[in-house]
Amino acid sequence: EVTEMFNKELLKKYMDRHGDQNKDLAAYLGMSAPNFSTIWNGRQQFNVKHIRLIAIRYSLDPQLVWDIFLFPDSKSQEP
Q1: Exposed, middle or buried: residue 55 (CB in 10 Å: 0-12, 13-18, 19+)?
Q2: 69 near 2, Cβ under 8 Å?
Q3: CA end-to-end distance (rounded Å), the chain
Q4: 5 to 18, 19, 78: CA distances (angstroms)
Q5: Cβ(33)–Cβ(24) under 8 Å?
Q6: Rg of the Cα trace of the chain?
Q7: What distance in Å separates the CA atoms of residue 64 and residue 70, rounded to the nearest whole number?
Q8: Integer CA distances (angstroms), 3 to 6, 16, 19, 32, 60, in order
Q9: Residues of 10-34 as b/e, b for ≥16 C-beta within 10 angstroms?
Q10: What is the distance between the alpha carbons of residues 58 and 51, in angstroms, rounded to a whole number?
């Protein structure tokens, strides 16, 4: 079973709402498009600084940060 580095679909949803493409988020994070691509394609992870910046940009609450970056494979546990 492949473990996702982050939940790409969920992050993409917030990027789309914000009108961001990969290059826009890369620029905001201060990284080159190729570096961003490496992360986007699962060959490297976002670091904590990047996760914080993304959370601020898209107003992600702690649960979303958890679901997107920390435990992307787990389904949110409904009570």
Answers
A1: middle
A2: no
A3: 26
A4: 22, 23, 23
A5: no
A6: 12
A7: 9
A8: 9, 24, 28, 25, 22
A9: ebeebbeeeebeeeebbebbebeee
A10: 11
- pTM attached to this predicted model: 0.86
pLDDT at 27: 98
DSSP state of 2: P
pLDDT mean over 49-78:
87
Sign of the C-alpha dihedral computed for residues 73, 52, 15 and 63 taken in this order: positive
Q: What is the mean pLDDT of the chain?
A: 90
pLDDT level of residue 15 (50, 70, 90 thresholds): very high
Backbone angles phi, psi at 60, to 5 degrees: -80, 135
Query: Using an 8 Å Cβ cutoff, are 64 and 10 in contact?
Result: yes
Residue whose entry in the numeric block shows the structure tokens 């993409």: 12
